[in-house]
């Protein structure tokens, strides 16, 4: 029996947590086409669903189980770049975040492959996410999508220097009410021992930009965490650091609780 494309846990909170990049499942036929570098699956958002587990008990969660090398659930299905003119990876990546090839010679996906993966992975995940957003909005008159991500703190191919610990993305304030943005910013700016940025290198991926339409009662915000905040090392085996994670979880819970408290006042 094949692995389900997504996992859902339904809750009663107005807050929905999405996890498009924590999955590590790669179908054998696709895995066989990855080269040794690709098979490391280095660009996974390692342990992020574990990091957020239990922080907001009544939240809905929607998690993609497939790896972003199969297809990236946080990219425009039309293949439009999120960051024109900047290095990034596409709908089905040809390279890793260091710009190194991930497919065997002559095995990179073609248009037919991409179309099939859109149908079999990307579309079902987003159909599930959209359905949960509608369910929550029907229940509360408002829904807040919090898109959960992480990335290595040093990736010269994508950005210079060290990435801040907390990277908040709202597409320059377009995807959520300012109260949600401000509440999140207040927590991270007060978090001792951490640094942060609002709409820096990461301004929110396709998920945040596609669903975040405050005028419809749907708000979206992306949190990109530097993996140094919760991993033992940002290299294989990418092990979870419980002590670091526990310190971080205090602040993440504060963010989510504040957003949950704000949400009822955002009804249209």
UniProtKB/TrEMBL annotation:
* E.C. designation(s): 3.5.1.68
Arranged from A to Z, the UniProt key words for this protein are: Hydrolase, Plasmid
Gene3D superfamilies given for it?
Answer: Zn-dependent exopeptidases (3.40.630.40)
InterPro entries in UniProt: HutG_amidohyd, N-FG_amidohydro
Gene Ontology MF, one = N-formylglutamate deformylase activity
Pfam families given for it?
FGase
Record-given protein name? Formiminoglutamase
Name the species this protein comes from.
Rhizobium phaseoli
């Amino acid at each position: 029996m094949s692995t389900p494309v997504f996992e859902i846990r339904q809750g009663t909170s107005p807050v929905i947590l999405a996890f498009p990049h924590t999955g590590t499942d790669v179908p054998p036929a696709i895995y066989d086409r990855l080269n040794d570098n690709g098979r490391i699956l280095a660009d996974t958002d390692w342990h992020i669903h574990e990091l957020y587990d239990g922080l907001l008990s009544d939240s809905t969660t929607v998690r993609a189980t497939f790896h972003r090398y199969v297809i990236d659930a946080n990219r425009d299905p039309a293949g439009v770049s999120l960051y024109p003119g900047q290095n990034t990876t596409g709908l089905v990546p040809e390279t890793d975040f260091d710009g190194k090839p991930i497919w065997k010679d002559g095995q990179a996906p073609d248009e037919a492959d991409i179309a099939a993966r859109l149908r079999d992975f990307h579309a079902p995940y987003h159909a599930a996410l959209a359905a949960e957003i509608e369910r929550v909005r029907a229940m509360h008159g408002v829904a807040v999508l919090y898109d959960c991500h992480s990335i290595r703190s040093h990736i010269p191919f994508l950005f210079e220097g060290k990435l801040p610990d907390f990277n908040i993305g709202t597409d320059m304030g377009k995807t959520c009410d300012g109260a949600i943005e401000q509440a999140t910013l207040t927590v991270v700016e007060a978090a001792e021992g951490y640094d942060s940025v609002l709409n820096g290198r990461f301004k929110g991926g396709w998920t945040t930009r596609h669903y975040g339409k405050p005028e419809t009662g749907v708000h979206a915000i992306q949190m990109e965490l530097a993996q140094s905040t919760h991993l033992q090392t940002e290299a294989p085996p990418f092990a979870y650091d419980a002590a670091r994670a526990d310190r971080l979880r205090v602040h993440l819970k504060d963010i989510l609780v504040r957003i949950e408290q704000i949400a009822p006042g955002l009804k249209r």
